[in-house]
Amino acid sequence: MFCPQCGTETLERLKYCKKCGTNLGRVQGVMGKGGAGYTSKQMEVEWEREALDERRERRKRSPEEKRLGEIKGGVITSCVGLGLMIFLSFLFDAIANNTGPDVQGILRAIPFIGVIPFLIGLGITFNGLFISKRVVELKREVENRNRPAPLFSAPDTAPVAHLVDRTPISDLSIVEPTTKALREPAPVPSARDTN
Q1: Contact of 119 with 81, CB cutoff 8 Å
Q2: CA dist 167 to 32, 43, 112, 160, Å?
Q3: What is the reported pTM?
Q4: Burial of 10 (0-12, 13-18, 19+ CB in 10 A)
Q5: CA proximity to 134, closest of 122, 126, 144
Q6: Whole-number Cα distances in Å, 51 to 23, 65, 72
Q7: How does pLDDT run across 30-81, given as a tens digit for each residue?
Q8: Distance between CA 48 and CA 41 in Å, rounded?
Q9: Which residues of 41-70 are buried (b: 16+ CB within 10 A; e: fewer)?
Q10: 2: which strand partners?
Q11: CA 166 – CA 182 distance, rounded (Å)
């Protein structure tokens, strides 16, 4: 498939052109549904299907991914609130300087509207950092408790650790390093002793 905007050849499964960013999903929809005969009802159904797919993808995220997304959203909201306060304070301060003294107080108070998204963002960030972290830990504990025990477990390798010889082999003898690692021989009764 070729992008209708820039003419770059793209894969059919891509939603957007890699070069110019044109929405190829809509182009494919128009081409697949009869071109210009694509009705608004068909577009609405297609949009609803895409929105449903997007919601399903969001649900598949792990609790930790949701928590990090919440923190990110909170930081962004706080920054928007802070930026709004700064922008409005410059704007309305300039306007207040050109008006009468009776209106100046009101105009200089308007920038404090940015405190609302700033505090909301701080709350979302706090929730993501502390409260959602505890929720994620509780979900992990529940998953670990509900996980069935394995049918076969690996044997404990700790008792075998003392059998491993970690000394480097200094010569080419096969027998000598092996016999050095052995313990003193235990007396074994011979067949003559049992008679």
Answers
A1: yes
A2: 71, 73, 73, 16
A3: 0.47
A4: middle
A5: 126
A6: 15, 20, 22
A7: 666 555 555 667 777 888 888 888 888 877 778 888 888 899 999 999 999 9
A8: 11
A9: eeeeebeeeeeeeeeeeeeeeebeebbeeb
A10: 9
A11: 13
